[in-house]
Amino acid sequence: MTKATLKQYSVSLTSWFAEALPFREAGLEHVAKKLLLRFSGYGLRPLEVFQREGDRLFDYDLTFSLFNRSGSFRLTAEGLQVTFQNARDEKDAGIIADCLVGFLESLAGRRIRESRLEAFVHASLGPAEERDKFLRNLGPAERELPVGGSVLYFPAGETFGEVRFLVDRSSVFPEGVFLTWAAAFTQTLSQEALNSAAANLKGASGAIGLEFGSTSNP
Hints:
The protein is α+β, with helices and mostly antiparallel strands. It has helices at residues 23-26, 28-39, 90-105, 128-136, 191-207, and strands spanning 2-17, 50-52, 61-66, 71-76, 79-87, 112-124, 150-154, 163-169, 176-185, 210-212. The longest helix is centred in the C-terminal third of the chain and has 17 residues, at 191-207.
C-alpha cells in the first residue's frame, strides 16, 4: 500500500425534486426563517440570505453561504445544490455532514427524486517521483503505457448507485494525486448515508493501493 496524506477536499451535493414548484407555491419566506434558525449557530444572519425572483414563475432561487463562502447553498424550483470547498480534516467533515443534513431538514415536505454526491480529494504521496510511480502502476506493466491516472467504476451497493472513482495528478499539490468520488442515490440523505459514502471512498482508495494516514495542513 502507498501511504497518502490528506491535504484538502471538497464535497458537492445536487438533488432534484420530484416536482418543480412555481414561485408562488415555494414559500421562500418560510424556508428562509427555518434556515436562519437551523444555521444561526454557524453565523448565518438575515441579510446573508438572498432571494432572486426572476420571472416569478419557475425562474427563482434562494441562496446563502457560510464559513467565508467556503460553503454555498442554493435552492431552485427544480432542486438544490450545496458545495463545500477547502475542507481539511475530520472536524470539517462533521460540520459538512451536519450542514448537508440540516439543509435538507429545512426543506422537509419537498420530495426528492434523485441526488448526486461528489467528493474531490487532494492527497500527498511524498516526493513527486513516488506519485508518478504510483500512477504508472495503475496501468498494465506489460504494455508500458504512459498512464497518468485512471477511472474505475464500482458496482452499486445498498445506499448508492454505481460509483465513479477517478485518480489523476493534482493540479494544486505538485507531489499529490487528485481523487474524484461520485455516486447517485434515491434515499433521503442522512448521517448514516454520509458515513457510508466516506467508507466507500476509503474502500475505493484501498482498491487502488492508497492508504490514508494523518492529515497534514500546509
